[in-house]
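Repro:
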Amino acid sequence: MTSAENAIIVQNLHKHFRIRYRTHLKTRMLNILKRQPPLQEFTALHNVSFSVPRGQTVAVIGRNGSGKSTLLCLLARVYRKTGGIIQMSAEDGSPARIAPLLDLSAGFHLDLTGAENILFYGAVLGNTAREMRACFDSIVEFAELGSKVDTHLRNWNEGARLRLGFSIAVHTNPDILLVDEVLAVGDEAFQAKCYAYIRKMQSLGKTIVFVTHDLRTVERVAQRVIWLNQGNIQMDGDVGEVLQAYRVFSAGAAFTDGIS
């Protein structure tokens, strides 16, 4: 499929990390004597390739350390890729408007009020103050904040911050929504609102890629599943088929872990 038919094209995507640990001088000297390397290196993704047609909702699953969140951070431009190609475009071919829900409290300034953070976080997502003011009332209503929006975020609980983050992200009219383990936040009633809004975005033809460990959420929302295993695509396709294979794999892995 061409870029005109796809919202996302990923080709031979590779991500390698080099992590340097800060240690005391005594520890560093011991490491030198033991000939231990000062850097830890690992490859999170190995030449991953896939495309996502416009309007499709794709779930990315896998065990911890499989590369799921790394993939989403690369798509969101939080990380720089080591190699490969990532293309994300709107229907008219222009660069896609992306709403990354990787950490709903990230992008907030705790010393600003909720109202000020709506403008601040909106700017982080690439929106103008005028655009954010136009949807301000809707954001506040959806997040169920009321007069709390005029108080400083430092005094809010995590649930209120999460509701505000989700509400801002989905009201910025993105072409592509990237969601990492935060598809449903808050209490049961607010979770229902989140799912309803996701269905609305699907009906509007928005492209959604989300990472989760909750397979019930995958069954409820996804139209396709990509299963990552140790940085490689293990399986990519129909929701039922991929989940069945993944459950068999997970059960076997859990048994192996239990006897190791």
